[in-house]
Amino acid sequence: QVQLVESGGGSVQPGGSLRLSCAASGSRSMIPVMGWHRQAPGKQRELVATIARGGFTNYADSVKARFTVSRDNNKNTVWLQMDSLEPEDTAVYYCYASLFGTFWGQGTQVTVSS
Q1: Distance (Å, rounded) from C-alpha 77 to C-alpha 100?
Q2: pLDDT for the residue 30
Q3: Do 105 and 6 contact (CB within 8 A), yes or no?
Q4: What pLDDT was estimated at residue 26?
Q5: Which helix (H) or strand (E) holds 44?
Q6: Largest Cα–Cα distance in the chain?
Q7: Three-state DSSP state, 59
Q8: How far apart are CA 101 and CA 11, in angstroms?
Q9: Interacting residues of 61 by C-beta distance below 8 A, sequence separation 6+
């Protein structure tokens, strides 16, 4: 069983930055894929960014060039650097890990508002 603990959410003005962190525990091996989804009020959960253990990344079109996903394979930790935040980025952000199944964090709120 993999446990994921997120941190780093909060409130910021448009154009600001936030950095989310997610640490995985309970896995003795390197997790193949980690990443982030988000869910805004009244909307479905959507993929934000993923990163494989080899470093390959994938981003939603809406966040390309603004968000950067990175990871530490040895620590099974993933980060999401979010720059040039927009009100449309307001959502609960969920970390996930794919290892013989998909595991989710508890979510962290990100609010972008003036």
Answers
A1: 18
A2: 87
A3: yes
A4: 85
A5: none
A6: 43
A7: strand
A8: 32
A9: none
